[in-house]
Task: structure prediction
Amino acid sequence: MFNLDPAVFTSRATISLGALEQNLTRVRAHLTGQKIMAVIKGDAYGHGLLPACLL
Result:
């Protein structure tokens, strides 16, 4: 059985706005003239909803 006690088990996610922007730039290059809609998960993990939306 796994011990998921936060005092023992921790994890971290690092979000790179630069990488997100680069990925979006590449998608836009392939979809010239098309609208793009991204789904942003309601900042549930504190990843920075507003900065990601403003790319």
Remarks:
- Helices lie at 17-30, 49-53.
- Residues 2 and 12 are 18 Å apart (CA to CA).
- The mean pLDDT is 78.
